[in-house]
Design a protein that fits this description.
With about 270 residues, the protein is an alpha+beta fold. About 25% of the residues lie in helices and about 30% in strands. Helix 1 (about 20-30) links the parallel strand 1 (about 10) and strand 2. The relative contact order is 0.22.
């Protein structure tokens, strides 16, 4: 049975309308994260996993495995390749996903944000990638400790900075396939003197990472089909090494409130 630590809540799909302010609460730090259970069925996720196994193109290697879909980080000022990959990814995702992924995520985020508009950003008529799919392979060390705020100096974020509140933004993902063991989401509970909220200085974040083992940690183990939304912008976190033979597969990206707090943007 799924259990979550303090400042996390579990939301069952049928009761989602009772939690209309949790996006704002998570942004403000009143909550650290939420798990919406059973957003997609295990059968739907198995069907997606099976179709992904037949894909041959659109993969990008990473130290922990690979992604399907190109992420915004490190694309620089010229995002031509990113936008081309995003267009292809969106079209192919609609073909292989058993249901409408974007429509489902938008509906849930809208309900959790007090019926705010939920939009995929774009520039000059070209849309961002709504999500990417991460494949974390066994015995590759997991996904290293990171924090969303440390990437905001990247010039690829310049446009998003104009329209969205990126500092302390949120992360989201859906579990497509679980590891046999390992693969937990680990969040580190550092005091403010070690890492203050809204810190974007990469050197200070690097120093905080070096002392990470001295501090408490929280562990989240969602089930297949669950949606996790958490304060990935301001809480140092990682994915534990994958053990056994199963690859950990998730689909997700980032969420941010618009500057006027009337919209929620999603992208990867």
């Amino acid at each position: 049975m799924l259990k979550v630590p303090e400042k996390w809540i579990i939301i069952k799909g049928e009761s989602i309308n009772k939690y209309s302010d949790v996006i704002s609460q998570t942004y403000q730090g009143e909550l650290e994260g939420i798990v919406v259970t059973g957003v997609f069925s295990q059968a739907e996720m198995l069907a997606l996993k099976t179709k992904l196994a037949t894909k041959k193109t659109g993969f990008y290697p990473t130290p922990y495995g690979e992604t399907w879909g190109k992420i915004l980080v490190a694309q620089g000022n010229d995002k031509s390749d990113y936008f081309a990959a995003a267009e292809k990814f969106r079209a192919e995702l609609k073909e292989i996903f058993p249901t409408d992924f974007e429509a489902t995520i938008k509906s849930i985020v809208r309900q959790l944000s007090g019926n705010k508009a939920v939009e995929l950003p774009g520039e000059q008529g070209r849309a961002y990638t709504p999500a990417t799919i991460r494949f974390a392979y066994p015995n590759h060390g997991g996904i290293p400790i990171h924090i969303g705020n440390e990437f905001l100096h990247d010039s690829a974020y310049n446009y998003l900075k104009e329209i969205a509140q990126l500092v302390d933004g949120l992360s989201y993902f859906v579990v497509v396939n679980k590891a046999e063991a390992g693969g937990e989401l680990i969040l580190y509970d550092l005091p403010a003197e070690r890492l203050k909220k809204s810190e974007t200085d990469r050197e200070k974040i690097r120093e905080a990472k070096q002392s990470i083992d001295k501090f408490p940690r929280k562990i989240i183990v969602p089930e297949i089909g669950d949606l996790v939304i958490f304060q990935g912008g301001s809480i140092l976190h990682c994915i534990a090494d994958i053990l056994g033979n199963e690859t950990r597969i998730t689909i997700g990206g980032s969420l941010a409130l618009s500057r006027d707090r009337e919209k929620v943007y999603y992208w990867s």
